[in-house]
């Protein structure tokens, strides 16, 4: 796996993944940025949410569960001093699907956290990661 980040100007960078997808990174104005892109630490949280959401949906689908939607919201706290690592991260899963088993949802989330989500396992080395979840029995795409 490869990635590349190139400086554009000020505190703006473009990032390109090895698969050819691009993103704009930028800093806050007080740090010399123009606020036109995502912050690098926000990108870490998005990566975590995307990694675990991918796992949970895949596990549920493989288990023939009727998952219709999955949203993962993330809230995190960072240390006050440098390096300002994440200290706590909370993942809120919102799933929907008629007949979706709560037990299987919990199991999918646990499997993601403990076995499959590389981002969760890495970040869990420095931050306390907690989760909560809800299931809406309606099919809400």
Which short descriptors sum up this protein?
single chain, 141 residues, alpha+beta, N-terminal domain of TfIIb, GMP Synthetase, Chain A, domain 3, three-stranded mixed beta sheet, OsmC/Ohr_fam
How helix-rich are the residues, as a percent range? Answer: 25-40%
**Largest sheet report:** 3 strands, antiparallel
Strand sequence of the main sheet, in spatial order? 1-2-3
Beta strand count: 6
Structural class: alpha+beta
Question: What is the H level of CATH, i.e. the homologous superfamily of the largest domain?
Answer: K homology (KH) domain
What is the domain tally?
Answer: 2
- The top-level CATH class of the largest domain is Alpha Beta
In the CATH hierarchy, what is the architecture of the largest domain at level 2? Answer: 2-Layer Sandwich
Question: Alpha-carbon distance between the termini?
Answer: 32 Å
Protein name: Peroxiredoxin
Pfam families: OsmC (PF02566)
Organism: Microvirga vignae
């Amino acid at each position: 796996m490869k990635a590349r980040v190139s400086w554009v100007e000020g505190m703006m960078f473009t990032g390109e993944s090895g698969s050819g997808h691009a993103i704009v990174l930028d800093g806050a104005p007080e740090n010399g940025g123009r606020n036109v892109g995502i912050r690098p630490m926000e990108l870490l949280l998005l990566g975590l949410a995307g990694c675990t959401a991918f796992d949970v949906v895949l596990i549920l689908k493989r288990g023939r569960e009727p998952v219709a939607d999955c949203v993962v919201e993330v809230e995190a706290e960072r240390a006050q001093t440098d390096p300002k690592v994440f200290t706590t991260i909370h993942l809120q899963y919102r799933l929907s699907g008629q007949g979706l088993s709560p037990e299987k949802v919990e199991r999918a989330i646990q499997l993601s956290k403990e076995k499959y989500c590389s981002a969760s396992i890495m970040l869990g080395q420095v931050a306390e990661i907690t989760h909560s979840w809800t299931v809406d029995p309606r099919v809400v795409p």
